[in-house]
Design goal:
Layout: E1 4-7, E2 11-14, E3 17-18, E4 29-36, E5 42-48, E6 52-59, E7 70-78, E8 86-87, E9 92-95, E10 102-107, E11 118-120, H1 121-131, H2 135-140, H3 142-148, E12 151-152, E13 161-167, E14 173-179, E15 189-194, E16 201-205, E17 225-230, E18 245-251, E19 256-260
Parallel strand pairs: 3-12
Antiparallel strand pairs: 1-2, 4-5, 5-6, 6-7, 7-11, 8-9, 9-10, 10-13, 14-15, 15-16, 17-18, 18-19
Length: 264
């Protein structure tokens, strides 16, 4: 409750906390995930309610992977608060954000224990002994954990991660206005206030689907209908069983135009 990680056999480790974080308030971990590595190695990533992401590692004997000797909790980076942490086999971290756009991040460094703000279970135990406090007192108040845990100053600049892709998200939509405010469009636009705090934004939504212009062809008039004709995979000698659009048929009131699809 006071910003600690507790493992079996009473292994306790204080969690690094932000500067000026109230001592009476603990560090609440909202989500955690475990990544298994080669040769039985693994580590966990945990995110707090403030967005700080911690790397949690357990030190175990090489000949006995069931015994935990100590624990280390170090600060990895500060990300938008997410509803989960998903690590892929390609070392990519996906954070579905609680507010604002979701993010896909790539690890620049993961072995950060030497330089990162960290705290170990051994350091926590020594600090408890020096203060003459027992484990029961350490669990009962947040002030006890705050007096032991190292502090850090949060930064918006990523140190060990970098974002490679963002997935648009409107959540949460706090206000909506529908109207034709552009002045030259047929359909009205949807103006939405989205996000919260520093990730707040004004989004303009329009009816329809976005298209990509691949080719331009002059037409003799206004067409009445447009059809597509697929080819025959057997006749073309392909064995993948797929059929592709081969022709575009444009119908006019007094004529029919056939356009061939392909590279020129």
């Amino acid at each position: 409750g006071g910003g600690t990680v507790v493992a079996p056999k009473r292994i306790v480790c204080a969690v690094p906390r932000r500067e000026n974080h109230p001592e009476s308030k603990g560090v609440l971990i909202t989500t955690i995930t475990v990544l298994r590595q080669k040769k039985g190695k693994f580590f966990a990533l945990a995110q707090s309610e403030l967005g700080d992401v911690y790397k949690v590692t357990l030190q175990m004997p090489k000949d006995d992977r069931t015994t935990v000797l100590s624990m280390t909790v170090c600060l990895l980076d500060t990300l938008p608060v997410g509803t989960g942490l998903c690590i892929s086999k390609l070392a990519l971290l996906f954070v579905p954000a609680e507010f604002g756009d979701h993010g896909l991040y790539q690890f620049d460094a993961i072995d950060i224990e030497e330089d990162a703000v960290k705290c170990t279970s051994n350091e926590t135990l020594r600090a408890m002994i020096a203060k003459g406090e027992g484990e029961d007192a350490f669990y009962s108040t947040s002030e006890a954990a705050a007096s032991i845990a190292p502090s850090f100053r949060p930064s918006s600049r990523l140190r060990n991660l970098h974002r490679v892709h963002a997935l648009d998200s409107l959540a949460p939509v706090t206000s909506v206005l529908v109207g034709e405010l552009a002045g030259n469009e047929v359909s009205p636009q949807i103006y939405a206030l989205c996000g919260r705090g520093p990730v707040s934004s004004l989004r303009v939504l329009r009816h329809g689907l976005s298209v990509t212009e691949l080719a331009v062809s002059e037409l003799p008039g206004v067409p009445g209908a447009v059809f597509n004709v697929r080819d025959d995979a057997v006749a073309t000698g392909r064995d993948d069983g797929k059929r592709y659009d081969r022709y575009i048929v444009v119908s006019f009131a007094d004529a029919t135009l056939v356009l061939s699809v392909g590279e020129t």
